[in-house]
Amino acid sequence: MRNMYxxxxxxxxxxxLAFALGILYGEATDRWFxxxxxxxxxxxxxxxxxxxxxxxxxxxxxxxxx
Amino acid sequence: xSTGAGIAPSPPRSRYGRFMTGxxxxxxxxxxxxxxxxxxDYNPLYYTGGLSNLFLFxxxxxxxxxxxxYEASLVEGFASxxxxxxxxxxxxxxxxxxxxxxDGFIVAVLLHLFRNWFTDRxxxxxxxxxxxxxxxxxxxxxxxxxxxxxxxxxxAQVLTAMFVGMLRSLPLIGDWLARVFIGGAxxxxxxxxxxxxLHIGPASALYVMLxxxxxxxxxxxxxxxxxxxxxxxxxxxxxxxxIPATSGQPAAPAGRPxxxxxxxxxxxxxxxxxxMSPFAVMVLLGALFTLGFAIPYxxxxxxxxxxxxxxxxxxxxxxxxxxxxELCFFDCPYNAIAMVxxxxxxxxxxxxxxxxxxxxxxxxxxECGICIGACPFEALELPKFLERDVQAQxxxxxxx
Amino acid sequence: xxxxxxxxxxxxxxxxxxxxxxxxxxxxxxxxVRIIRVPCxxxxxxxxxxxxxxxxxxxxxxxxxxxxxxxxxEGNYLxxxxxxQLQRRLQRRRVDPARLGMLAYGLHDGPAFLAAVRxxxxxxxxxxxxxxxRSAPAAPAPAAAERETP
Lengths: 66, 400, 150
Known about the structure:
By secondary structure, chain B is mainly alpha-helical. Chain B contains 14 helices and 4 strands. The longest helix of chain B is centred in the first third of the chain and has 28 residues, at about 90-120.
């Protein structure tokens, strides 16, 4: 299970790198909607990473909600 | 109350009570499934209120951006929106963010409403957040509608005409309300200024109502967990980029289009106009919101006498034992305990030198008993479930 | 009823659905477990748990709603903190903290709740016998006179 989570994090990290490059590309070529959509995709990939980290127990719950 | 033997509660007898119990079980069943995927502190259904607040925050920030460029006049209104969409760098994106965050806001608010309704979180003095929440819903819906007006394309024009028709259908005050709404006898240059005010004014008022909404909560869960902040903001940006928000044809004084793109989140009353008279739609809306306000008082699953320990009475302070230590004051989740200067020393040894006295604000107490657990000095009791009753049950358990 | 350690459970009325699990105030599957229904897990005063242990109960547990979903918003978090503190206090008094438990189960978690209670009871059965009751109460006029200073 832990290996699957790690694989997921690696996959999502790779995706977010691709999205970040896409944002730069959209900015350079003035494709604002393209770049903006990739900002959203990047944030969603980050949310997936945070979720997987939480499920692996690397980042814990907030103190009040331990 | 019969405290002996811990008699199991009988299931609600009325058909309505059974139905609402089924709905409660269904709502919590959904949680069971979601908790299989998400840890409990990341369960989005535990944070519907926080999600609403997050979407509102996105709306405010993107709205400030749009406000820089928007011009509220019949001539410039449509053109300025087009300029935002096509001319301003990332302007169309921000417009889309504003549009989709509004949809997310309504979805989150409705989830919040139904979840708290179905899981009985409106009982006793929790009607107060319910009432403020209904005001938030009405104002939020109206703000969404005036947002469609501001674009001033054909749809906006038709919507304005329809809404004016609905207002005029009301007896006595209808004409006056319509005048207030469009800023004159007919659509004029003042109309969009009025619409802009009716968009931003009630939206600012939402924060006043949120203060009222949070007033009785000790630690309101205002923000959702990190992963949901990222996912919500991300989803809104993704949608805004993939399906950009667009205007229709510019409004023309003679134009009367027969149809326009619908929006299921804000424009449902206007869809009803296809089938009903404007007055009937207004009556329906009025009845709907009246029922909404009445839910805490008429939607009880159980009669009070069926509620057993769930209805144990408003907590009472035992004056002689209170030491003024503030523990109950800190733990009460509803801010229902106030500390007042002690008028006289207490009776017990620990309470002899107190400076403060705890007082239960009865109109805020929801009879949960958390203050009883917080108090190590036996200075609080629930009148229908006394410490004596608990001790009797414990004794019965250990002697058997 | 004499088989198994005497366990007292304080169960929030909004958490596990007890109707199918209970009979005459006790769990049908484990009659040695006496259930006391309370309006919220946060209602339980830690001195009651201590009292129950002192009066001869072999174990005490509190059950609240799942964390994050307390009907009264914070009752189960508050109760968990209190149970943690009480466990530390018990440890200083040479009472095994395993005799005190905090569970959190929702309306539909009846089987999981039963399994957790069973594990709790088994854990207590494995412990060495507890000290004899502090004061064997003769009459059912309990704690009123006896004041616990915290």
